[in-house]
Amino acid sequence: MELELFRQDLIQTSTCAAGTMAVMPLTEEKKTQKVAAGDLSGVIQCFSVKKGDFQVAFKTLPSKENKVTSLVLGKGKTQRDKIFLAAGSQIKGVNKKGKEFFRFNTQLTETIRRVDIFEKNIWSAGEYVHNHFIEGRDKALYLCPDRINDATVVPLAGPTELWPVLACQDRYVRVLRGSAVCYEAPTPAAPVSLQYVPESHDPQHRFPQAKEVLYGTDVGTLVQLLLEPEAARQGFTLPNPKKQGAVATVYSGIDFTKTGMNNIVVGREDGGVEVLDLEEAGQLTSVYSVKLTESINALDGGFVTGLLAQEFVLHSFSGKIISYAPPGGGLLAPPPEAPSRGPLGLRKAAPPPAAPLPGAEEEERRASYARQIERLRQEISALRQEIEAERTRFQARGGDTAQLAMSAPFTVQDKCKLEADEACYVLTIESAVPIFTVAIQSNAVLQMLDVPTNVAILSRSPPDESNGNLTLATYRCQDSTNRLAVKFKVREGRPSSLSAFVIPAISPKACLVVRHTIKPLCLHSRITAMDADRPTNELLITGSFSAGDVHGWITGVLHDLPPSLPPGQDGATYYFTNSLLGTQLMIKYRAGEARFLSDLVSTLGILHEHCMREATNAKQRVTVSFNPSAQSLQHSVALVWPQLEKQRTLKKTYMMLEGLQELRMQDGDVSYLSPEYRSVLDRADKIRQEYKEQPQHLDHLVALIKDLYLDFCKLTGVATPKTRIPALDQLLLDPGSSLEDLMEFLTGQRGVWALDPGRGVEPEAEEEAPSGGGSQGSRWPLGQATVREAEREV
């Protein structure tokens, strides 16, 4: 079943934070529901729509010091029409007429990102701290081990006993009871949005006592979680095969499809909006979808523009408030009678009135649109008059355009995220005003990739190595767009930085710079466990350092870690996986000891180099021991080899493509060619497209195997002959070489190296020099259980 929904742009606010809009409940009067919204300029406003006319109930003055970061309605019986908002460390209460009746200064050092109110209870969530206040006094405090992305409260123990539920960056949904964690539910990816659903999507009623929570992840999946006081069960999961943006907000309060169960509306960071229906088999299907050009920060619903049908309302990053109504709803006239009330005072949905004649409905809709157009024209005329008045005052004061550009009001939000499926990064830049140009600068070699959804032309400049600018690129937007995605690949090994210079399409020109750090192990992402069957190498560092020192060391190498050690712990354990190769890393540390396990020795080489540098700078005495595994070397190379072989074949195919096409132009009929060559001609366009990015990718894989070989030799104390590196290059680039040839070369079965699995790494007797040549050096077999120790004291 496909839905038909009509879009209606309601009002424009300033740029907004996530979760700063709410639809107020229906009143006894025959009116539509009001919408309350806050923005980052500190303005709070409440408006309603009646027969196409917009009526502003109240609107506060802007305040740069009081940016609205959360706006909700009270959950108590007498609070459902009260607006509560968080601004900085303050929590305020405003009634439906705009009068402030409550203010509470929490004295918190963090900005409150989420607030919930139930009678005398206040729950506030910052970046890492969650607080519970009763009548303004501290009741409970919880310090989260990782960043809190979203929070809500759920009546798990009864209608009046609400428990906080947190969506945390370390891939856990935590249920709190007081200051303690009742239990943790692991998630497949980092949850970024959380929504409690009073009417559960469980048609079989298998768990009647469970409370449903829907959470969206940063990889774009939606998951149902059924919470009980003692445990949680995972329900359905909505995958993301099209690789859409992260699920920024979720709403479920309207049954558009009339199946007896509310539909789920999903808003994404890339502007995608979907209406989902749950089938009897438990599968989610999309019944409506639309794509906007900016992220969706809030979703709600109700009778907003008319009383004939409910509609959902969204609040976008730039401040647009837009409603989507089914046919017959929207800006049509309200029914003759207001909906009745239930026994608990809750307003029931209005019964469907008699369907108006198609001609009358069309005339009413046209009249509503005409009123909207006239209202917009009046607003544009008023804005033009204000602009002319401001321009006149500016010229009268002899205004400086440079100073005007510096004070140009535009907001940019950006995010640099690892796409694990493609082993690349995506830098997303979103501006409140259309983007004119984005310039990219980095001191690392970035492989810039095409993004099909971009409406920008990429121009690359030659690197300026003397100034450390190894990547210079410019994106010039052709159409009006507020969102741009920059996709790139980068090698692991050394820290680097990325700067993006955003120039909006406003006059006079201004520029805003956003910066991101690319850490040495940038392609590693967090996982919850490690495969114990893999052959691994072990790096052990001991000394007089503290657990906090080690945590500081590893946060300088890896992304996706909390900035400080988890509270109340003298150590921690983390697991990572390499998104390019699939290798894994375990980090386990405590005071005086740090243990690193990985099946990729290059990962340990990077960690060893960084930790030694940090220990040297801190003048700490440490001891390092390394336990290598020849099997892990073979295991790692076997993971890289299929990709290397694919890229070599692609290069060979591309090189012969030009000659084959010349033959076809000369001869016309090329049926005499072998099936292999004819297949190359048939796939000419696809081969060119793949080869466009191939040279850097092939070089990347070759360099990866070379680094793997050199790091293994370095950590095992083997002095690698430099004369072997050119031979290794030739072996890797030769399409005729096999994995067995490469393994013989790395393990020393070719040339002057030999493999002796039963022995440790130690020099053997020097071989005799061949006639007519010099000494070939010593032979160093690569052992499996060798331990090398080194002590460094500064």
UniProtKB/TrEMBL annotation:
<dbReference type="Pfam" id="PF23743">
    <property type="entry name" value="Beta-prop_BBS7"/>
</dbReference>
<dbReference type="InterPro" id="IPR056332">
    <property type="entry name" value="Beta-prop_BBS7"/>
</dbReference>
<dbReference type="GO" id="GO:0060271">
    <property type="term" value="P:cilium assembly"/>
</dbReference>
<dbReference type="Pfam" id="PF23349">
    <property type="entry name" value="BBS7_hp"/>
</dbReference>
<dbReference type="InterPro" id="IPR056333">
    <property type="entry name" value="BBS7_pf_dom"/>
</dbReference>
<feature type="domain" description="BBS7 helical hairpin">
    <location>
        <begin position="631"/>
        <end position="745"/>
    </location>
</feature>
<feature type="domain" description="BBS7 GAE">
    <location>
        <begin position="410"/>
        <end position="514"/>
    </location>
</feature>
<dbReference type="GO" id="GO:0005930">
    <property type="term" value="C:axoneme"/>
</dbReference>
<dbReference type="GO" id="GO:0016020">
    <property type="term" value="C:membrane"/>
</dbReference>
<dbReference type="InterPro" id="IPR056335">
    <property type="entry name" value="BBS7_hairpin"/>
</dbReference>
<feature type="domain" description="BBS7 beta-propeller">
    <location>
        <begin position="21"/>
        <end position="324"/>
    </location>
</feature>
<dbReference type="Pfam" id="PF23360">
    <property type="entry name" value="BBS7_GAE"/>
</dbReference>
<dbReference type="Pfam" id="PF23361">
    <property type="entry name" value="BBS7_pf"/>
</dbReference>
<dbReference type="GO" id="GO:0036064">
    <property type="term" value="C:ciliary basal body"/>
</dbReference>
<feature type="domain" description="BBS7 platform">
    <location>
        <begin position="524"/>
        <end position="627"/>
    </location>
</feature>
<dbReference type="GO" id="GO:0008104">
    <property type="term" value="P:intracellular protein localization"/>
</dbReference>
<feature type="region of interest" description="Disordered">
    <location>
        <begin position="757"/>
        <end position="794"/>
    </location>
</feature>
<protein>
    <recommendedName>
        <fullName>Bardet-Biedl syndrome 7 protein homolog</fullName>
    </recommendedName>
</protein>
<dbReference type="InterPro" id="IPR056334">
    <property type="entry name" value="BBS7_GAE_dom"/>
</dbReference>
<dbReference type="GO" id="GO:0034464">
    <property type="term" value="C:BBSome"/>
</dbReference>
<feature type="region of interest" description="Disordered">
    <location>
        <begin position="332"/>
        <end position="366"/>
    </location>
</feature>
